[in-house]
Structure of Dihydrolipoamide dehydrogenase:
Amino acid sequence: MKKLFYLVVFSFVIISCEGEQGPPGQDGQDGQDGQMIKPQAVEVTVDLRGVNGYYEFLEYPDGVSVEESDVIMAFQKVVYGVNGEYIWEPLPRILFGNSYTYSYLYDYDPAVISFFIDGSNDWRSHMTEEMNAGLIFRYVIIPTELIQGVDTTNYDSIMQTLNIKEIKSLN
């Protein structure tokens, strides 16, 4: 038992010993500072009429950058009532006629965003030039790091949650 006691004490002594401090390591190179990740909002007015094939491709405005991983949510300004009240409807926005349907849609990549109309059952014959002239859309570019917890179906909620104050205009 005495030998076991000395063995335990000896092991504690060895474990608690410290050696000399080694030489300091090399200083690291300063890296490039990270960029501030900011969501951005842009408003555009487009004509989705038959003369341009019911679509329009737009480059992003100066100062607006889109990364491959960013999420873009688009909304269409829809006026209702007689006093000019409006809401921002999320895209895709599907409308139903008597025997046809058509949708306002969008697509994007890091270089361009496009807005267009598609439909079923001869929807083009029901379109008028005035229906799709001067349509107002807003899109919000959201870095993926900020998307969690954001209600992406509600324009006002996105703007408030992400604290976006400035809306750039493309037109």
